[in-house]
Amino acid sequence: MRVTLAEILKATKGSIIVSCQALPNEPMYCEEMSIMPFFANAAKQAGSKCIRTSSIRDVVEIKKATGLPVIGLVKRVVEGYASYITPTMTEIDDLVNADSDIVALDCTMRERGDGTTINEFIAQIKEKYPDIVLMADVSTFEEGVNAAKCGVNLVGTTLSGYTDYSPKTDGPDFELVRKLVSELDTPVIAEGKIHTPEAAKKMLSLGAHAVVVGGAITRPLEIAQRFYKGIE
Fold this sequence. Notes:
About 40% of the residues lie in helices and about 15% in strands. Strand 1, helix 2 and strand 2 form a beta-alpha-beta unit. Helix 2 packs across helix 3. The longest helix has 11 residues. The protein is globular and about 45 Å long.
């Protein structure tokens, strides 16, 4: 059962959305069973009202374990596609069938292997699934504005620093959030390199609807690496 966008927005306003993800090449990935529901339950106990996760298995298992709404995505490398976050309609279909409350996808302007533009792809998704709730993962101001004009429901700064043409910084892209909030009526979700409560609080003060935090909470390898780097 899916939760409505209005319900999610009400629950997450001014709050933290915890990202619980583990890819097959990462230490917290287990082939035999999903470990992510344990992280998601910890996030729920801490106060999270929504979880972001990758893979159909984790969408299903986290919803079952927590009862929380889930932002679902699928990370898959597809030949000819620069994007890897929910790159094709196949992943959209799978996430809809798994009852993802929100479907996140790469909405950058990068090349798409099927020859469509991101605008055309969004239109195809909305035609096939008129009631779908979409979160656009973008890397620049222009991409965020474009995605909002295409009718997505949320704009996230997830990919800032992860495209060749977006600013490379060690920390969060506060300026991108500030600019998007000032321009868009669409809720802006701050995401990417938010490693401290202070950074999360600053994002909210800039007008972000909510903040996604993953690596600082649910990725032990990244957390340990930051500590080791910090004492060098």
